[in-house]
Amino acid sequence: MTKTCWIFLIILLLSVKESFEGIPTKPISKKDVSSPYVLRETPWADSVFNSLTLNERIAQLFMVAVYSKPGPRNVDEVTRLIDKYNIGGVIFFQGGPVNQANVTNLYQKIAKTPLAIGIDGEWGLGMRLDSTIKYPHQMMLGATQNEDLVFEMGEDIAHQMKRLGIHINFAPVVDINSNASNPVISNRSFGENREMVTSYALNYMIGLQNNHILAVAKHFPGHGDTESDSHFSLPVINQSYSRIDSFELYPFKQLISCNLGGVLIAHISIPVLDSDSKMPSTLSKKIVTSLLRDSLQFNGLVFSDALNMKGVSNLFPSGELEVRSIEAGIDILVMPENVPLAISKIKEAIASGRISEEQINRSCKKLLVMKEWAGLDKPSIIEIKNLVKDLNAPKSEVLNRRIVENAITVVKNNNELIPLKNLSVWRTAVVSIGEEAENEFSNTINLYNTADHFSLNKKADTATINQLLRDLKQYNLTIVAVMGTNYSPLRNYGISSSTIDFLNRVALNNRVILNVFTPPYFLSKITSLNFYKTVIISYEDIPLAREYSAQLIFGGIGASGSLPVTATKEYNYNKGIITTGNIRFKYTIPEDINISSGKLSGIDSIVNDAIKKNVFPGCQILAAKDGIVFFHKAYGYHTYDSSRAVLPGDLYDLASVTKITATLPAVMKLYESGSLKLKRKLADYLPELKKTNKHDINLMEMLTHQAGLTPFIPFYMGLIQPANNDEKLTSNSYSANFTIKLGRNYYLNKNNSFKNGYFTKIPSYYFGNQVADSLFVLTTFEDSIFRKMAESNILPKKEYKYSDLGFMYLYKIIQNQSGIPLQEYVRRNFYSRLGATSTGYWPLLKYDKSQIAPTENDLVFRHQLLQGYVHDPAAALMGGVSGHAGLFSNANDIAKVMQMYLNGGTYGGERYFEQATIDYFNSTPFMSTGNRRGIGFDKPEMNPQKPGPTCYCVSAKSFGHSGFTGTFTWADPENGLLYVFLSNRVCPNAENTKITEMNIRSKIQEVLVKSLAQ
Q1: 641 and 783 part of one domain
Q2: What domain range is 487 assigned to?
Q3: Which residues are designated catalytic?
Q4: What residues have CB less than 8 Å from 247, skipping those under 6 apart?
């Protein structure tokens, strides 16, 4: 690195700290800058140069466009230019990576002199090629306040380009976007501050050139203050010399002093630099030679902007245009319209003395030196195998996510509205403008809380807008997302006048969070901006921005971005409000937390094999590490007929997982309030048991399954009348004298019938507890259940024996002590506040049956396929609500309850329990007697010689529970891992025990635990 560059970097960092507070001050000077034009030996370039004729040296200065997408016509035309004239390079545009690789291999094979391959990849290969990574535009990068991310992006883009055989990237854009009406630069600029633009551009440049990809800074001498597009006309910048020198030229000067390899000249007119107002910079010797080469001492390659752009092509005919470009001092002619004619005209200009042969030689030699530096001195072929995979490495996706996460900017947040707290108070509407109601933004919001979703067409008429405004009055929170946008101020960023009308009215009578997926300049269009409670700028309408913006609203991530440009007087440069993150789940990919997706592929193998072997028809799996969800997938179908695929939001019958997600949190809350004491006797809370054999059982013993209670009572057996009195019914009587056919809703066992007086098909006051479709049991039968429980035997010795009865008693105690039905108590105190809105009893009250995975085809008791009604017979006879079973949920919402436990009793910025309470209930009070159970929680079996509920790779601090229907959840405070598995393995037959025999749930858990070890 040059001495000048070292001095500049020190000055730059000091000035940046003052003008752009928040940019890290780590010395960039530690990163040495590679450049083709640092003094060194170039034997290959010298040898090749000496082998070229004058015609070929001229041809080396041409870089023609290639479109690998349209087909062979353009490819064949360029092939002829390479073969006949030995042109110097090509620049690729629209196409795909495999096609481009094949074309490049073809061109390099036939080229006498290896071709310099270029691409206009400001935001990566994805700017031009499908199936590749597309990074955010530079304005979004400018919002991150983190130039290290830009450096990493530059490096990553360089690696991808090298893999695809590219040597030149026409980036970074170093224009300072000082004009909000700029139609061509706008979001392509890092921002409006010269120090910030320079710092970020320098990092991008270093990332490229350190990996031997030539960086071409553009658009010299500065395109940021224009109001017309040089693709269609010649923009004019009327500024003073001092302004141009200190502002527009500033980034170019600093990058040049740090070994910048290439500069692209803009098609703009700057009268103060060249008095001929009709002379574009590309053709101005005063600008290219006198200013750039002589004054700024740039010794790298000078590229023209595309010569087919109207800003220059309207001025001179093909041939003369290229001659004038060379006269001005251009080295490389980009996208000429007629190469043979241009070569001929340049050769004539040499003969006439307009252009010196020495100038041609100098430009040709510089290009060859660059080619040697880029590795073209050694033959190479682009390997097609795994090309697309290599260009889409997970680390690139992680970097992309980090950039978006750091960029999203909150410019207004009255009363710290976001991240939203206490979700139970919000009745939320989400309005997606310019997009369907179901999209990445709304779907991500659904991960956090229930909302009603609306879509507003950008061309909606007044009547539609008025109706929507009336509909929104019933909500106390409205989230408005402006989507379907573009980057053009000339086209109003893709926002219609009717959209702006809605935006100006919606905040007048509603509490509104506004999220715009467009450049910040759009804010100036909204006259009622002061009425919005929160305003979020997400810069681009891309899926990642949609996902992370929704996460930001709920505190999955925090906001740290700041405006790189001034949007309005109030929302000016560097404006940005920091918000709290990590209070709820963040959703991301495994590599974001250093977990290999490859290691997790074992889960797919386990699950797909299990489905194939009819272990279960489908399942949901979620895994989180330290509050970050890195694995969330749905597999298979609801039933084996494959008619309904499992979706992540579908509900499952949790069975005994109910114990730790409903009963236990209720017990813990009553314990903290002093309403329950675990050493108190059962009869103290249920006086009717004083004269029974259960009077001296305490709550601690019940919670740990140490009370000696009967493990199971088949209450429904007394309600069934066998057709043959000699026929014996047991709890496992699921024999069928007919064919089971999935997809049907109702099955009758012809051998058995219900006893008279217990069931009806129509509900009434006396028959109020529904146990299945069109089947209602006598309401007072719940009393019979508890009577039978009271009469049941007690085991002779109080030792570990799993029993549902204790949690059935707790159901009754919770309701007595709280004065609220259990289902309402847990909904009010936990699920609605957590945003676990799918979690609850009686799912059919809120969800369509198609969203609920069916359980057993019950041939003995209810004579039908159970879907949306609790599988457990005892819980069903109690009306679907009990302490041991009855709860339904999806994996995402169960995870919220479990993460709250892992967090020591907090989630979403709210405290539910004290840490001491969590620790106490997670303890094992009877471990010395061989009982591994916690107080309500199941605990791992640490002796690998004994069977246990988990894999043997979890810690003793871990806790969780499993469910009879094929459910399981487990959390480990030691490594922060949370795991949820939901299936309906009992569909259609509860005797299917393959899930346990094959250790499916523990095998998946083992994969997850091992994935943490990197």
Answers
A1: yes
A2: 408-583
A3: 231, 305
A4: 176, 178, 194, 222, 239
